[in-house]
Write a structure and sequence with these properties.
By secondary structure, this protein is α/β, with parallel strands linked by helices. It is built from ten helices and seven strands. Strands 1-7-6-5-4-2-3 form a seven-stranded mixed beta sheet, sandwiched between helices. Helix 5 links the parallel strand 2 and strand 3. Helix 3 packs parallel to helix 9. It is globular, with a radius of gyration of 19 Å. It starts with 16 loop residues before the first helix and ends with a helix.
Length: about 270
């Protein structure tokens, strides 16, 4: 039985390997002599440099390549969250954003989403860590125009730490296409990936962006988890990020068409 609409999927339906290599500007022959030795624990320098270019004033030493965003979040929470901390999360939320802090003994403060995100949602809330997932999963909401900058300035003044999870930044309508990610500064941390937006979830490539000392601590912790990401995944990921402007418009059009089809048939 085939469903007319798969409302349970959280990413673009997957491309096969041949299409993925084409998007990445690679041929089969480009992978034939690829060494299957472990990748560097931090991730290859070329891939970290490409990820760094997605953020303002970030260098490759501020990037840790991880096995999906899930590992990046786990590492970040292990280092940021302490027993009895208060952690805010936009609600409803992706499960890992609250279950991991909860398992670490934090108190979860839910900030309900009723529309576009805006600075006043965080006013008057005292917390050790604010988790800002945008574009938001699962509602798709992002910041109203100008509100992201206002929110960053406000939270910087409170002295609270902020983790920006930008996993869906490449989706149309996110307000972030063609733009850089959130500026990483003291107390600000970022996690991300492209795999769901690019239809290549199986590559399992994500990242954590922070100051160099924090990245070094996370890198040491990662030794006890996945240790490294597959060099095959890293090489394909590098090609996809480098060539994203060649194929991303087609993906964005596909997503918009799916949204239009859904609204036409199911509203």
């Amino acid at each position: 039985m085939e469903a007319r609409c798969n409302a349970g999927e959280s990413g673009l339906s997957a491309f096969d390997l041949a299409d993925t290599l084409e998007h990445a500007g690679l041929k089969w022959s480009d992978l034939e002599r690829l060494s299957l030795a472990d990748s560097p624990n931090r991730g290859s320098l070329s891939l970290r440099a490409e990820i760094a270019s997605l953020y303002p004033n970030v260098n490759p030493d501020q990037v840790l390549v991880t096995t999906g965003t899930g590992e990046a979040l786990y590492l970040a929470f292990q280092l940021l969250v302490k027993l009895k901390d208060t952690v805010t999360v936009l609600w409803p939320a992706f499960q890992a954003l609250y279950e991991i802090p909860n398992a670490l003994g934090a108190r979860i403060e839910k900030i309900p989403i009723t529309g576009p995100l805006h600075q006043s949602m965080w006013e008057g809330i005292q917390a050790n860590l604010h988790i800002i997932n945008h574009p938001h999963n699962p509602t798709g909401q992002s910041f109203a125009e100008g509100e992201l900058d206002k929110t960053k300035k406000y939270l910087e003044q409170t002295g609270s730490k902020v983790l920006f999870d930008e996993h869906y930044r490449f989706l149309p309508g996110s307000g972030m296409l063609g733009e850089t990610g959130v500026a990483i500064q003291s107390g600000f941390y970022g996690t991300g990936s492209f795999t769901k937006c690019f239809g290549v979830t199986g590559l399992r490539v994500g990242w954590l962006v922070a100051d160099e000392k924090f990245i070094e601590r996370a890198r040491s912790f990662k030794d006890y988890l996945t240790h490294t990401v597959s060099p095959i995944s890293e090489r394909i990921a590098l090609g996809l990020l480098t060539n994203r402007n060649n194929f991303l418009p087609k993906i964005q059009t596909r997503v918009r068409n799916n949204i239009n089809l859904f609204e036409k048939n199911f509203h």
